[in-house]
């Protein structure tokens, strides 16, 4: 079975590349994936499938019904791009100014289309059903996963799997782990209100910029002195904006930051400490403030049995040495919402190598395109393993 699957994937590879490059040239931002959704629908219909549209916005689903009764396994890909100008000098560079697929979602969509074609071709051999989930708006909270869940995308689903093309790993490898794998994400916006004045007479002011600088330093103690040191966490202040002159102390300063943790206790404590440090630091200088604390995606927590199944499936099609344990990763993913509802596993499929050296969300980001075929193999073998079991060889 696995040799046949590999041969079919190799045969499909030119189409996978063509789909990915079309999507790369025509990226769409989160919540605006109208053309992408239409492309997915048209392609699924060409396989003989009957997609449903408008699920959680521009989400698309389709179900492959096997020849025998059994469980339903869902496979998910995200479709949205990022507000970044494509800097690559390639013939498939983005044609949309200021928008590009800088995180691999074009490859995710192409990979799930490939899996859909192969699994539909062998549907008579499947003991159960495969639900295909093409999700909008992964990049921007509140994200598309929750909206699709509210629209019933997980009704009747027994397990769910997803993959992310990942350039920190070389093409030909797969990495995942049981339990927490990717962090939760919470963001905060702070406005500090002082009392501006002349730069030469600071004693007559409440310097919002100085307060902001102290906050940047003080917030570093959340991780170093409040969180349990054996439980990873990050608090990053990514923006401090205040003033525009040499000799004018500004009235206000603005801070933006993010908090990343892996467990509910750390997440709760980090928020408490951010709020307390903000209040005490501003109070110390006599400044006022407002805080908008935005609770985002929960951590990605993989089910142990589902993780073991995906690893066995990936070894079957890519080789024993290809599969490794993933490190804990601070970027977040709204696939986490699906995992809160049904058991499943999220995995990284290596997409790095020559020509794909730049990090995710970089203007020069690209992937090794053979990784799309490898993602197809992982998705198909995992779905088959869920429904039919994993044969030897």
Ordered list of secondary-structure elements with their pairings:
Blueprint: H1 2-25, H2 34-46, E1 52-55, E2 59-65, E3 68-78, H3 105-121, E4 127-135, H4 144-150, E5 159-170, E6 174-176, E7 179-182, E8 184-193, E9 197-198, H5 208-218, H6 221-226, E10 233-241, E11 248-249, E12 252-261, H7 264-285, E13 288-295, E14 300-302, H8 304-318, E15 323-325, H9 335-341, E16 344-352, H10 370-388
Parallel strand pairs: 3-4, 3-5, 5-16, 6-15
Antiparallel strand pairs: 1-2, 2-4, 6-16, 7-14, 8-12, 8-13, 9-11, 10-12
Helix pairs in contact: 1-3, 1-10, 3-10, 5-7, 8-10
Question: What does this 3D model show about the protein?
Answer:
By secondary structure, this protein is an alpha/beta fold. It has 2 domains: 2-182 and 299-388, Zn peptidases (Aminopeptidase); 184-295, 2-Layer Sandwich (Alpha-Beta Plaits). Helices cover 36% and strands 27% of the residues. It has 10 helices and 16 strands. The protein has helices at residues 2-25, 34-46, 105-121, 144-150, 208-218, 221-226, 264-285, 304-318, 335-341, 370-388, and strands spanning 52-55, 59-65, 68-78, 127-135, 159-170, 174-176, 179-182, 184-193, 197-198, 233-241, 248-249, 252-261, 288-295, 300-302, 323-325, 344-352. It has an 8-stranded mixed sheet with strand order 1-2-4-3-5-16-6-15, with helices on both faces. A 4-stranded antiparallel sheet has the order 10-12-8-13, with helices on one face. Strand 1 and strand 2 form a beta hairpin. Helix 1 (2-25) runs antiparallel to helix 3 and helix 8 (304-318) crosses helix 10 (370-388). The protein is elongated, with a radius of gyration of 23 Å.
